[in-house]
Design a protein that fits this description.
Blueprint lengths: L5 H13 L9 H8 L5 H13 L5 H37 L4 H32 L2 H20 L2
């Protein structure tokens, strides 16, 4: 399975930084803020860019990676907008007199969109992975493991 390989974990993490990190493993508490848009998006893109630059990509690789990112950001725009709308509707149902069944149905719609976003993110990760050399993949895995360890210490 692809995600059992450390490099795959690193690329998933990298892509999470560049687009929407919590879509694959969303906690319910975070759903509203993510569905409303990501105010940290520019910071996430900067961190992602810094990480990629630390791999010393060639100009050709930089161009390809940027093209992949742009392609997928465009493809993710509509599902993101739908998620914001559905999250608003879910919030309205929760604060109103809606039945449990209605609330669950709306939640299921939100979860389906999150899954769609996760698949798009995974597809993007695979394309980006194809641009990197084996050495860069290994270096990226090391950098991502270091980041995970540092973030655990900060908790």
């Amino acid at each position: 399975m692809l995600l059992r390989h450390p490099i795959s974990y690193a690329l998933v993490g990298l892509l999470g930084l560049s687009i929407i990190p919590q879509f694959v493993n969303l906690r319910p508490v975070m759903a509203e803020s993510l569905a409303q848009g990501s105010p940290n998006q520019p910071a996430m893109n900067r961190r992602s860019d810094q990480l990629m630059n630390s791999l010393n990509p060639t100009p050709e690789q930089q161009q390809k990676l940027q093209a992949i990112r742009q392609e997928y950001q465009g493809r993710m725009q509509q599902p993101q907008q739908q998620m914001r709308q559905i999250q608003k509707e879910l919030n309205d149902l929760m604060s109103g007199n809606a039945s449990e069944t209605q609330i669950r149905q709306k939640h299921d719609q939100l979860m389906a969109l999150k899954q769609e976003m996760g698949l798009l993110q995974f597809d993007m990760m695979l394309k980006m992975r194809g641009v990197l050399t084996p050495e860069q993949r290994s270096q990226l895995a090391d950098l991502m493991q270091e980041r995970r360890q540092n973030s655990r210490r900060d908790r």
